[in-house]
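Posting this for the archive.
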Amino acid sequence: MNPANDQISAPKKPSPIRQVIPWMFAIAILVYMFYQVDFRKVWKVIAAGKPLWIIGAYLFYCAVYYLTDILSFFRAYNWFNLRISFKETALLRFASYAVQAVNGALTEIMSVLYMLRAKKVPILNSTSSAGFVYFNETLTLMTFLAYCAFALPTANRILIPIPYLNISFWTLFQALIISLWALVPLWLIFWRTGLCSRFPKIRDNPLLLSFKQAALKNYLEMFFYRFSNNLISLGANIIMLKALGINAPIALLFACVPLMVNIAYWPVSAGGFGGPQLVAHFLLKGYASEEAVLAYSIVWSALFFLTRTLTGIPFLRPVYQAAFPQDSARKN
């Protein structure tokens, strides 16, 4: 790959506006949340909690997350791109955690640029591998949401009718989950039979390279990594909730916890704050005081930020320099 093609195909850093927008959303959400409650009561809930339970549960989840996440990308890169060591994959992922904590918009761009410039993997090909990981993460989320949709007691469901549809919100939620799961076997059939050959533009799209190459066992292994991570996350969050005196239906937490964790990576969150507070507020409302729910989500976000930055910063420099050599050259 020559340098000219490198520069042409390489994505640019997100604009300053795009990098600031998640912080604006996060700050706005936090201002809204704290406007609703008395901060002294929030602090009182935190102070009355069991810190050893909270920290121990989160650190155990963190260790499992790091292992399963590194394994996910290690296997995906080796299946679909090139041979890369577990150690180098860990270096890349730990560096991404630090960036993720302060600048989520830059995270994936840094990863694909590292793979391009350090490993000579085309941008779309490494993006496809990441897409395979996140596809299975989505399947995991759908699994947890399905359990919530059908196992949550009727008394705890949102039964507000949807205007013009003559059905409740919960019925629509269940129908959506069933529809999404019905698409999964169709997706596998498309790629694992000759059907994809009838659509060469889709089949040969480099963004879909991983799905073209993936065998069923690849899906199963990746799903195992992502499901294990989310299951441990659920258990850790149940312990954290109980340590703060909050008791909510387990079936509801099958939806609340994965949504809260995943929204921490969306552009409505920054440093793990913002989105998680909003999700916890709306899904756990009624099972504890607003101060207790906010205390829980703030503690979770603080631990998210601290663990991501403290474990990621020591590995950040070599990955950042490889991904953005022009920035390093300017500093020198």
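The beta strands are 161-162, 167-168. Confidence is low (pLDDT under 50) at residues 1-8.
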